[in-house]
Design goal:
Elements (H helix, E strand, L loop, with lengths): L1 E5 L5 E5 L1 E4 L2 E5 L13 E8 L2 E8 L11 E12 L2 E13 L1
Antiparallel strand pairs: 1-2, 3-4, 5-6, 6-7, 7-8
Amino acid sequence: MAMSGVDGMCRPLAYQAFVFVEGQFAGTLSPKPMNSRLDGDIERIFLINSDSILVEFKRYSKTDPLCCSSAISRVSFAIEPQEAKPVLIPLSVTTENK
């Protein structure tokens, strides 16, 4: 993971999670940089096996306090070889209330 800054409480701002396989870049876990305590912020990352990742993203509604998202989206990813390079591919998304 990498970030470009932090807020006043040292929480990451404009951060991204990168996936590498044997030193080769495969992709990012989010389509755009994320900010702590905002919709789409990563909550947890699970390495299922050498070619599968599950990521939980916090989902905030307009009425949620910044401390507590009301839902979570789980995205499953596969890492597949394409033209001798690994590529991170989102397979499915499920969202549920907490």
